[in-house]
Amino acid sequence: MSNPQPRVALTTRLGTITLELNAEKAPATVANFLAYVDSGHFVGTTFHRVIPGFMAQGGGMTADMEQKKTMPPIANEADNGLKNVRGSIAMARTGDPHSATSQFFINLKDNGFLDFTAPNPQGYGYAVFGQVVDGMAVVDAMATLPTGRRNGHSDVPAEDVIITAAERVTA
């Protein structure tokens, strides 16, 4: 990649969140995320899981809680030294550590228990690949919205927080 720290702006009705991605420490994860940005995948997805004092997750579900088609899963890069601290962005995944596709989350606080912990075979962690550099107030505002259940999912904001634009920006 020509820029080891590309930036992406995610626009929602609450405001814009600007992310700085770390392609040096998480090259496959950043390439994957940028492929979703460049394809327009994130537009129309919602932050579908928001847990105050924990994280805000988005990138894969429409407002009606339908999962969008994704590219194949990527290898987990959680052992890159980046930590799940407040404002960091990490890949969401299933119990399979190498199952991340398009969904990501932004940490609302330091969540060290999500970090890679060697040599524990269960300690793959969640791969951090960047951080919020502007718009953390937008993420914090999401955590103040009432949540509930929708179509079998919990912690869904009652008022949709849809990504209306996702684009690369210059620093």
TrEMBL record:
Residues 14-168 form the PPIase cyclophilin-type domain. Keywords: Isomerase, Rotamase. PROSITE patterns: CSA_PPIASE_1, CSA_PPIASE_2. Its EC number is 5.2.1.8. The keyword Isomerase applies. It catalyses: [protein]-peptidylproline (omega=180) = [protein]-peptidylproline (omega=0). Pfam families: Pro_isomerase. It is an enzyme of class 5 (isomerase). One of its GO terms (molecular function) is peptidyl-prolyl cis-trans isomerase activity. Belongs to the cyclophilin-type PPIase family. PPIases accelerate the folding of proteins. It catalyzes the cis-trans isomerization of proline imidic peptide bonds in oligopeptides. This is Peptidyl-prolyl cis-trans isomerase.
